[in-house]
Write a structure and sequence with these properties.
The protein is an all-alpha fold and 334 residues long. Helix content is 75%, strand content 0%. The relative contact order is 0.15.
């Protein structure tokens, strides 16, 4: 397994290098530029030339890329054109918010998706099975932004139960040493702040987790239906094992592989930046950060953010691949 992990990590080098080339030249092919976005109506040929000289944008593209590559190898992602702050500092502030939201959404999806799919498969052909299929189709089909607005209207506007924007109320005084608000509240031992953070997290997590929940439920149902008709399952039943033992040790464990695959893919996608959810709930994460960078033509933020997202996505899938051997002893990663 160690050799497999090292081999996959070495593959990161050509992947990230190729992606950096694509992103670098794609960004510069966009109309406009940082100087025009920064100056707005005050843009003149002289001021644009001054900004471009300041950030080295007046140099040939291949020279710009070489300097960018050298800085990246030193873990220097540059300075944001819009905020004048190092990209690594902004990344350190934004990414924990996206991690917190994505993990909450994935926990919601897994906790409800796997049992729903398993029960639907065990009750195959019944009204419960058909209802789960209809519900999963609705979950996949409904746009996230529409569901987010609907949740805000029902639970915030009409019922007044949950907040609509942000990660924490402005009236809560809480230090953020880790930038993970749930963890910060736990470390501070502030139950009031913890409850406030969790209330802010509920609606965005449900909205973001709706599609993964539907997908996980459908994959679980299909995997369980496929496994429960295998010979080793019938043999286990013939030996007199209890239905619970058969379900846990033989059906669910062998059905976990496709479920783990889809969980890994969905986790990587969620961590890549939940743009629509973060925008609707004004969540200060990677999604809103990159959207603002596109609007402002903030080249350093786009380059650093997209490269970091790709790194996270590959690492998440590496962890999933290595977890296969733990879930199913028949598989050995080498």
């Amino acid at each position: 397994m160690l050799k497999f992990a090292v081999r996959r990590l070495l593959l990161l080098v050509p992947i990230l290098l190729g992606l950096s080339i694509l992103v670098f030249f794609w960004i510069r092919a966009l109309p406009g530029g940082p100087a025009q976005a920064l100056l707005g109506e005050r843009a003149t040929p002289e001021t644009i030339a001054q900004i471009e000289r300041q950030y080295g944008l007046d140099q040939p593209v291949h020279v710009q890329y070489w300097k960018y590559l050298q800085r990246t190898l030193r873990f220097d992602l540059g300075t944001s054109v819009a905020s004048r702050r190092p990209v690594t500092d902004e990344l350190a502030e934004r990414f924990p918010a996206t991690i917190e939201l994505s993990l909450a959404a994935m926990i919601f999806s897994v906790v409800f998706g796997i049992p729903l799919g398993f029960i639907a498969a065990k009750r195959y052909g019944t009204w419960l099975d058909h209802s789960s299929l209809v519900a999963s189709l609705i979950g996949i089909s409904i746009p996230i932004f529409f569901l987010a607005i609907l949740l805000k209207y029902v639970f915030a506007v009409k019922l007044g139960l949950l907040p609509t924007v942000g990660r924490i109320s402005v009236l809560i005084d809480l230090n953020h040493p880790t930038k993970f608000y749930v963890l910060d509240a736990l470390l501070a031992g502030d139950l009031n702040a913890l409850w406030d953070v969790l209330k802010h997290l509920i609606l965005p997590a449900v909205a973001l987790g709706s599609i993964p929940l539907a997908i996980i439920a459908r994959i679980t149902r299909a995997a369980v239906l496929d496994v429960q008709n295998e010979d080793y399952v019938r043999t286990a039943r013939a030996k007199g094992l209890s239905p619970r033992e058969v379900d846990e040790r033989h059906i669910l464990r062998n059905a976990l592989l496709p479920i783990m695959t889809i969980i890994g893919l969905q986790t990587g996608l969620l961590l890549s930046g939940a743009v629509l959810t973060e925008t609707v709930f004004a969540w200060p994460g990677m999604g809103t950060w990159l959207v603002g960078a596109i609007r402002n033509r903030d080249f350093p933020v786009l380059q650093g953010g997209i490269l970091f997202v790709a790194l996270v996505f590959v690492l998440v899938n590496l962890i999933v691949d290595m977890a296969y051997a733990l879930a199913n002893p028949r598989i050995r990663v080498s």
